[in-house]
Write a structure and sequence with these properties.
The structure holds two protein chains of two kinds.
Chain A lengths: L1 H28 L4 H6 L5 H11 L5 H14 L12 H36 L4 H15 L2 H15 L15 H35 L2 H9 L3 H38 L5 H11 L2 H29 L1 H4 L2
Helix pairs in contact in A: 1-12, 5-6, 5-8, 5-10, 6-8, 7-8, 7-10, 8-10, 9-10, 10-11, 10-12, 11-12
Chain B lengths: L1 H12 L12 E6 L14 H7 L8 E3 L5 E3 L2 E6 L5 E6 L13 H12 L14 E8 L2 E6 L6 H4 L26 E7 L3 E6 L12 E6 L3 H9 L5 E2 L8 H5 L4 E16 L9 H10 L2 H9 L4 E2 L22 H10 L7 E6 L3 H16 L3 E6 L2 H10 L5 E6 L20 H11 L4 H18 L3 E13 L2 E2 L16 E2 L2
Parallel strand pairs in B: 1-10, 14-15, 14-16
Antiparallel strand pairs in B: 2-3, 4-5, 5-7, 6-7, 8-9, 9-10, 11-17, 12-16, 12-17, 13-17, 18-19
Classes of the chains: A mainly alpha, B alpha+beta.
């Protein structure tokens, strides 16, 4: 187990280093000068040069890469060109929006999808099953940003139950914060739940055919007991795989959803940073998100080991 | 039990249903873009002045809602007959919100910093003609110029020329300290900036207790936030197509005004076929400005015939010079030897006026036999490729800087217009003394540009303001990109 952990950590570090180099090189090719965006169309050439010096943009590429690696290693992550504050602060301000949003969305998606998927599998071909199949088809087809707009129209404008956009900050209290995150979380969760419910259903259907379930039934277990004690746990591996994969989609989804709901999260930060050519912020965020995806894959592997002890011995 | 719980939940979800507070004294105002920093003297983003101008930071003079120069931290001034010396008489009772006293040393510091070699002031050129700022006494500032500048006082009214104190200057980007009627409270990055009333303000105190500027980039989200009551006002509303909805709703007031944004079809004057005056005029004849405004801006916007907008002094209407006449355009193109089917590129930055306008203009130019290839790009790319390297045929862009006739007199500017006659005229205008002479010259400049038509002048960007019908005191026009909320109040 320890060798496994060490190996995985090394792979993680090397992946991050590779990601940092790729991101840095790609962004060098991107046309556009952050100083030109900061100073606008009336700026004189000497003013631009002064700002280049101030931002350290007059140094050669390799020097800037090394300086950035040092900033990554020390955890300061460098200084944002546009905001002129340490990037670590910017990210720390945004995490309390994006993390709860992603967590609520995953939680909603799984608590909705797994019971529904299992129930549909248990009554295969029944009216409930058909309804689920049709519903999930629609859920998968609806883009999350459009669903977000529909939710705003109905719950914020028609019923006025929830705010249409914005985030008051957790300082305003847990409930106002949760209220602001509820609609975007639903918009993110429903399409994911649709996929997850289908995967759960087909995985459970498969294990229901398995010999050990028949044996369990033959031993005299009720249908429900056989389902929950034998079929469902064994069906969880593909489900966990999908949840892990969905996490990457969620990160991509937050970029759009945070713009629809004007939430000050990481997604909006990366979007604005690209527009403003705040390259240092883009670099940091891409590496951070790549790190998140790698970490989630790692977690998924650990969960596999928990679900199926045979895998832990590898 | 379940019922009860559901009821409790609903009650918690519902916003306060109590009768509206009769004495509302807070304001929640929407903006499309978030400012990157809050120091207007270190960054050109209009979003900065849209928050801090007049509210937090003040200059020696200020620009009012009609675009006139008014006293601010200088209560009066005199200009020497040769136009080279400005003597400002400063207010005695002004302090910055951190307690720093405002006097002539602050003026010296602010102007000196803007003109310094390492200055990153986006309008550094305003300060370069200053040879010295001296202080005969703490409340008199004498500014001496190398050469007369007819726009100097107006320029000093821009947000780039506000007064900053040496001790707060390093932190103004994130925590602005000014002399204005509002204090910076906090900045929730990505979402809002909050200001509160300054209890120690030197002038008439603000009527509002607090103001929240919220950043909503998406046009439909902006509409929804107004309709849901999350916002009280959106002074530069980004969705002209949604305006009809607000006009028919008695809860809202819609104010259609003008900005300084001169929307132009900029041409690369060094590239064929735009080197030929007949071609540039042909393009002007080929574009139906009314139809363009209707299609791209839902009908909001004023046609212009030169690089000047109707709210500025000395404006003349030159839109009649090249009326919509496709037949004449075809004749001119033929005379210039441009064959039907010639392909030109049209580079489009992100704003809707450019993207939507570009498609309409492409169709109009098709009518006169030109093939137009549309190239949508981002701002950063536009600044690099079009603005810095002049690598383009045509582009659509709005120049939002007020009274910027100087860009046609610069040795290098992306559309590369060069005319000795214009340069001479501009030099006379820049150093003109006396308003009558200045007005005559500004008219001549407009006429010269319309005759040479280096760019096709399209329309002035509208200022579409949508706000609560009970709200008063917001500006209808935008002579500067600002949201001056110092006189805003709620009707009972």
């Amino acid at each position: 187990m320890i060798a496994f952990l060490v190996r995985r950590t090394l792979v993680l570090a090397l992946s991050l280093l590779a990601a940092s180099l790729v991101v840095f090189l790609v962004l060098q090719v991107l046309p556009g000068d952050p100083a030109a965006l900061i100073l606008g169309v009336n700026a004189r050439p000497d003013t631009l040069a002064a700002l280049h010096r101030e931002l350290g943009l007059d140094r050669p590429d390799w020097l800037r890469y090394l300086a950035w690696l040092r900033d990554l290693a020390t955890g300061s992550l460098g200084r944002s060109y546009t905001y002129d504050v340490p990037v670590a602060n910017l990210i720390a301000e945004r995490l309390p929006v994006s993390l709860p949003l992603a967590a609520i969305a995953v939680l909603l998606a799984t608590t909705l999808a797994i019971p529904v998927g299992v129930a549909a599998a248990a009554r295969r071909g029944g009216a409930g099953d058909l309804a689920l199949m049709a519903g999930s088809q629609i859920g998968m087809a609806i883009p999350d940003f459009w669903l977000g707009l529909l939710l705003i129209l109905f719950f914020a404008l028609r019923l006025a139950w929830l705010p249409a956009s914005g985030f008051p900050g957790w300082a305003a209290g847990a409930w106002p914060g949760l209220r602001a995150l509820l609609l975007p979380a639903i918009a993110l969760a429903l399409p994911q739940a649709a996929i997850l419910a289908r995967v759960t259903r087909s995985a459970v259907l498969e294990t229901l055919q398995a010999d050990y379930v028949r044996t369990a039934r033959a031993k005299g277990l009720t249908r429900a007991a056989a389902l929950w004690r034998h079929a469902v746990p064994n069906a969880m591996i593909p489900v966990v795989t999908i949840i892990g994969l969905q996490f990457s989609f969620l990160i991509a989804g937050t970029v759009i959803i945070e713009n629809v709901f004007t939430l000050p999260g990481l997604g909006r930060l990366v979007f604005q940073a690209i527009e403003q050519r705040d390259l240092i912020v883009v670099q940091d965020l891409v590496v951070l998100l790549a790190g998140c995806v790698i970490a989630v894959n790692f977690l998924v592997d650990l969960v596999y080991a928990g679900l199926d002890p045979r895998l832990g011995r590898l | 039990m379940v019922r009860l719980f559901a009821l409790a939940l609903f009650a918690a979800l519902l916003p306060g249903l109590a009768a509206a507070d009769p004495a509302k004294d807070t304001l929640s105002l929407g903006m499309v873009l978030e400012p990157p920093v809050l120091d207007p003297t270190a960054n050109a983003a209009a979003a900065i002045s849209e928050i801090v101008y007049a509210n937090v930071f003040e200059g020696l003079v200020r620009i009012d809602s009609a675009g006139r120069v008014q006293p601010a931290l200088a209560q009066s001034w005199t200009i020497s007959p040769d136009g080279l010396t400005y003597t400002f008489h400063l207010r005695h009772d002004v302090t910055f919100s951190d307690g720093t006293k405002f006097d002539c040393a602050i003026v010296q510091f602010s102007y000196g910093r803007a003109a310094a070699p390492d200055s990153i002031n986006p309008q550094k050129q305003f300060f370069l003609p200053i040879t010295s700022t001296t202080c005969p006494d703490p409340y008199t500032a004498v500014v001496t110029m190398k050469e007369p500048r007819s726009n100097f006082l107006f320029d000093m009214g821009w947000a780039d020329a506000v007064m900053v104190a040496p001790n707060s200057e390093p932190t103004n980007k994130t925590h602005p300290i000014g002399t204005g009627p509002f204090l910076f409270q906090r900045w929730l990055r990505g979402d809002r900036v909050e200001l509160v009333r300054n209890p120690h303000y030197w002038g008439r105190p603000a009527k509002l207790k607090s103001v929240t500027f919220r950043f909503i980039a998406d046009p439909s989200a902006a509409t929804d936030a107004l309709l849901a009551g999350d916002l009280d006002a959106f002074p530069l509303f980004p969705a002209p197509e949604a305006v009809a909805r607000f006009k028919s709703d008695p809860r809202f007031h819609v104010a259609i005004g003008t900005t300084e944004g001169k929307t132009i079809l900029a041409l690369n004057n060094t590239r064929k076929p735009f080197t030929d005056l007949r071609v540039r005029r042909a393009l002007a004849y080929a574009i139906d400005r009314k139809a363009l405004i209707e299609g791209a801006m839902s009908g909001y916007g004023t046609p212009i015939g030169s690089h000047y907008v109707p709210i500025d002094p000395g404006y003349i209407d030159l839109t009649g010079l090249y009326p919509y006449d496709p037949a004449k355009a075809r004749t001119l193109l033929a005379a210039a030897g441009v064959k039907p089917g010639t392909t030109l590129t049209l580079t489009l930055p992100p704003p809707p006026y450019a993207r939507r306008g570009g498609e309409i203009i492409a169709a109009m130019l098709q009518q006169v036999g030109l093939n137009v290839k549309l190239i949508p790009i981002e701002w950063a790319q536009w600044l690099d490729q079009v603005f810095k390297r002049s690598d383009f045929d045509m582009t659509i862009v709005a120049h939002v800087e007020p009274r910027d006739l100087d860009i046609y007199a610069r040795p290098h500017y992306y559309f590369e217009y060069h005319s000795a006659a214009y340069d001479k005229l501009y030099a006379e205008y820049a150093s003109a003394r006396g308003d009558a002479e200045k007005l005559t010259l500004v008219k001549a400049l407009q006429r010269k540009l319309a005759e040479d038509e280096p760019n096709v002048f399209l329309f002035a960007l509208p200022k579409i303001g949508v706000w609560n019908a009970k709200l008063h005191g917001l500006w209808a026009d935008d002579p500067l990109p600002v949201n001056d909320v110092t006189d805003v109040y709620w009707a009972p």
